[in-house]
From TrEMBL:
PANTHER family membership: HIGH-AFFINITY BRANCHED-CHAIN AMINO ACID TRANSPORT ATP-BINDING PROTEIN LIVF
Domain ABC transporter: 5-244
Record keywords: Amino-acid transport, ATP-binding, Nucleotide-binding, Transport
Keyword presence, Transport: yes
UniProt protein name: ABC transporter related protein
Xref: InterPro entries: AAA+_ATPase, ABC_transporter-like_ATP-bd, ABC_transporter-like_CS, BCAA_Transport_ATP-bd_LivF, P-loop_NTPase
Gene Ontology biological process: L-amino acid transport
Organism in which the protein naturally occurs: Desulfarculus baarsii (strain ATCC 33931 / DSM 2075 / LMG 7858 / VKM B-1802 / 2st14)
Family: Belongs to the ABC transporter superfamily.
Gene Ontology molecular functions: ATP binding; ATP hydrolysis activity; branched-chain amino acid transmembrane transporter activity
Protein's UniProt keywords contain Nucleotide-binding: yes
Length: 244
């Protein structure tokens, strides 16, 4: 069977600046794969190239391919990535509407299946079970949520859209340690239910503990890869990303 996601020789640039110089990696269905690397390594660029959810000044793919179940998705319109491939990117590309409540933001993500009332109700419950904070704040305007709570809402919305492949850009960023634990526990639960996760993190220690396999990205190139346990023992990786 073909791989869920396969990226080969991916080169991307912003104007004349090369950000990715030929990146290769893959994700199998059901896996948690992490992409770690320092500031500016090209992690966010990689996710934007895959999801096609990019701002007007976003990266352009110059060479290489991105295949989903064997089919190239480079020609696909951004909105089709979510609707047809069941892939969601968060929080980059999250469109949380600040003047709507938490509940209303979740509900927007169900528009495409608005007739499935029972299913939608179950999904609300699932999001609120995973993130009790969102349940407490369901009638609160989203702009008044903390940064961490907004991250949860972004993940919650991805779930309401029934995605089966979650692309996460630094879900730990700006979260207090306890909230980071909540977030990763919720993500682990989702993975156990079958959700595939591609996680981008600067917090390499956390990411390598959480994921099954990892890739180290350094200035636009993959410089190491393997099962997380192996990467954690790699002297180079230790020195550069795990604080010695
Ligand atoms: N809109 C842009 N225009 C021009 N260059 C950009 C743009 N966005 C990113 N870059 C450049 O592309 C390279 C990769 O950036 P990217 O955002 O992918 O890094 P990152 O690994 O996500 O870093 P961080 O950990 O800081 O989020 C960097 O050198 C960055 O300066
Ligand atoms: Mg980034």
């Amino acid at each position: 069977m073909s791989r869920l996601l396969e990226v080969t020789g991916l080169r991307a640039r912003y104007g004349k600046i090369d950000a990715l110089h030929g990146v290769d990696f893959h994700v199998e269905r059901g896996e948690i794969v992490t992409l770690i690397g320092a500031n500016g390594a090209g992690k966010t660029t990689t996710l934007m190239a895959i999801s096609r959810a990019r701002p007007p000044d976003g990266p352009r793919v110059k060479a290489g391919d991105i295949r989903h179940q064997g089919q190239s998705i480079l020609g696909l319109a951004p909105e089709k990535v979510v609707s047809e491939l069941n892939m969601a990117l968060t929080p980059t590309g999250r469109r949380i509407f600040g003047n709507l409540t938490v509940g209303e933001n979740l509900s927007l993500a169900t528009y495409a299946r608005r007739d499935d009332k029972a299913g939608i109700k179950r999904d609300y419950q699932r999001v609120y079970d995973l993130f009790p904070r969102l349940a407490e704040r369901r009638r609160q305007r989203s702009e008044s949520l903390s940064g961490g709570e907004q991250q949860m809402l972004a993940v919650g919305r991805a779930l309401m859209s029934r995605c089966s492949f979650l692309l996460l850009d630094e879900p730990s960023m700006g979260l207090a340690p306890l909230l980071v634990q909540d977030m990763f526990r919720a993500l682990q639960a989702l993975n156990r239910e079958g959700m595939t996760i591609l996680l981008v993190e600067q917090n390499a220690k956390l990411a390598l503990k959480f994921a099954h396999r990892g890739y180290v990205l350094s200035t636009g190139e993959i410089v190491a890869s393997g099962p997380c346990a192996q990467l954690m023992d790699d002297p180079e990786v230790k020195k550069a990303y795990l604080g010695g």
